[in-house]
Design goal:
single chain; 112 residues; alpha+beta; 3-stranded antiparallel beta sheet; Ferredoxin
């Protein structure tokens, strides 16, 4: 039995400058939407660490740390800097939940 690869390099669209520009513009729009849009500052009510948060739904929370968590969060520092062993700080999650309940953080899709 002969296996054939289904992998292919993404097209370069070198012969279509308009298509190249459309892909570039969509990439920039996606980057803004997924990495920047809707982020709001939340400060941990326990240690004061400030992070950027987006609540896409009540179940989905995106957190962007402004600095290395092992350096700015006592919870991560206590883990010996092994940030991969811990998803996030429970005190920070409590602070985010408080911000949601107080209406400080908008939940984008409150139906899910």
């Amino acid at each position: 039995m002969t296996m054939t690869s289904t992998w292919a390099k993404a097209p370069s669209y070198a012969d279509s400058p308009a298509r190249v520009e459309a892909v570039r513009a969509q990439t920039a729009a996606d980057e803004h939407n997924y990495l920047d849009a809707g982020l709001q500052e939340v400060q941990c009510r326990s240690c004061g660490t400030c992070v950027l948060v987006r609540k896409n739904s009540y179940r989905h929370t995106s957190i962007q740390w402004q600095a290395d968590p092992a350096e700015v969060c006592p919870e991560f520092a206590d883990s010996g800097g092994r940030t991969g062993s811990r998803q996030t700080c429970p005190r920070l999650l409590d602070s985010i939940e408080h911000a949601v309940l107080e209406g400080i953080i908008e939940v984008r899709d409150a139906e899910s």
